[in-house]
Amino acid sequence: GGRERLVPLNTSARTALDRYLAATTGEGRITVKWLFPSKSAQGHLTRQRLAQDLKALAEEAGLDLERVSPHVLRHAFASHLLDRGADLRSVQQLLGHADISTTEIYTHIHQERLRSLYDRFHPRA
Fold it and tell me: What is the pTM of this model?
């Protein structure tokens, strides 16, 4: 959407990024405008190409292609954060939602999952 977003990186992610940069630039520094440069007209990996590559990887892994997409990864990311205690405002910022009500959709899914786990595992359920 043309928005600038912050991406927090833990130590493992930072190490992987450093390795990627060293392998692609030879010096470990970004020397191009894009993190994922491409020979495309845009000069970077497009969202459409990412979706194509993701589908190809899913097919190689034997996954159901209908259940794999960049949007599903985005949804899993948000759900994972909420499951591990992230606050809604932080998730909103990370997803780039202008309105908190857009992000609140994830809380309903999160609450349903909590209810399901409670019903399944709590001795007094």
Answer: 0.66
